[in-house]
Structures are given as structure tokens and as C-alpha cells.
Amino acid sequence: MPRLELLDGDANLLPPRRVAASVQATAGDLAKVTERLAHLYGGHGPGPAAFPAPGQWARTSYVTLAELERVGALTIRSRDDTPRRGDVLLRTLSRPPTVATGTSADDKGVAQVMEIDETRLDAYFVATFLRADVAALPVANTLGAVSRDDLRRCRIPRMPLAEQRRYGGAFRRLLELDAALRTLADVSGKVFEQTIHGLTTGVLAPDCEVSEGETSKR
């Protein structure tokens, strides 16, 4: 800084004002990311479907996971086992049950692994109906993990496999949309932040002039 500026009591002496980033996105880089983001938004449709009310509510019979395990409809495996695609996973930190996708993300924070007999149970049906019971369980350990005994006491509705799959399909679509929107929100926030940074540092320029009248309306 010039010496005369140092004598000014209003001079900003903080290092970030004087140090530029060694690597900075160009206008072309931001244009590519923004275009890709627009495609992502367009690929997820208008949002979740509107579900109708059921003709009647007759789901009154429930079965515990212990009973289902006794008849071989599911198996609660060791938490050290590698999850396989289609397994129902109970995770640490009191997170809701999920269905294993066969990717490396399955191994993160696993508390219990349930192998599902697909000829008798739908994995997404089991995972989603377990949410309420698992959330209500007291967690006695620091990992926020459900114990095997508590898990066996949890219940799901008795329902024919075809009906389970109807519910499971709806649950799966909602969960996929939720995950996609969370990703979009995260990516969008980063793109907006970089775009604002580009506009304020001269990397980008506004595409049109904003009139004084439009500014006053805002």
C-alpha cells in the first residue's frame, strides 16, 4: 500500500483485501457449470406426485421383525458384514433406515444390516415403515445406534407383497427425489456463491443493465 494510505485511519489493513486467490474460475468455467446445473433442474420434473386418499384404511395387523426373522423373511446380519444391494441398513447418529444401493456409500455409519428375502418382503417398504418405530427407540450409546434386540421389537404392517411393492415404489421415488433436490441445493449454493464472487471481482459482468426504475421497485 502507498505510505500516504497507511496514515489514513480508514485504511483497511486486513490481508484478505490484498491477497488474490491463486486459482480463480473463469467466465467460461462458470458458464459450463451453470448450464450443467440447468440440465439437472430440468431432469427432475415438476416435483413429487400427488397421492390420492385410500378407499379405506384397514391396515391394523402388524408383525415384529423378530417374527419375520423366525420364519426366514429377513436376516439380521453382523454389522461388520459388507452391505449388499437391497439390504436394509440401520445407521448411527439416529439416522432413518435406508436401502443399500451397492455403492461405497453403503459402508458409512452402519449400525445394523438386514438381509431381505425379496420373494416375501419389499426392502423400501420395510425401511420406510421402520422409520417411526426406530425414531421412537431410546438410544443408550454414544453412536446413536439401534441395538439388535430393540430392532427385533420393531413392527411393520402385514401386507401382500404386491401391495408392499406399491408402497415401496412410492417411497423409493420420493427418497430419490429428496436426495436429488438436496444435491441440487448444495451445488446451486456453490454456483451462486462463485457467480457473485465473479461479479464482484470482475471475472463476470451482468448480462443487461438494470434501470433505476427497476432498482427502485426491488
Structure commentary:
There is one protein chain. With 218 residues, this protein is an alpha+beta fold. Among the domains are: 26-45 and 171-205, no CATH class; 63-157, no CATH class. It is 44% helix and 11% strand. The chain contains 8 helices and 6 strands; from the N terminus they run H-H-H-E-H-E-E-E-E-H-H-E-H-H. It has helices at residues 3-6, 15-18, 27-42, 65-70, 123-136, 148-153, 161-201, 212-217; strands at 62-64, 74-77, 88-91, 98-99, 110-116, 155-157. The strands form 2 sheets. It has a 4-stranded antiparallel sheet. It has a two-stranded antiparallel ribbon with strand order 1-6. Strand 3 (88-91) and strand 4 form a beta hairpin. Helix 3 (27-42) runs antiparallel to helix 7 (161-201) and helix 5 packs across helix 7.
What's the structural blueprint in terms of helices and strands?
Blueprint: H1 3-6, H2 15-18, H3 27-42, E1 62-64, H4 65-70, E2 74-77, E3 88-91, E4 98-99, E5 110-116, H5 123-136, H6 148-153, E6 155-157, H7 161-201, H8 212-217
Antiparallel strand pairs: 1-6, 2-5, 3-4, 3-5
Helix pairs in contact: 3-7, 5-7
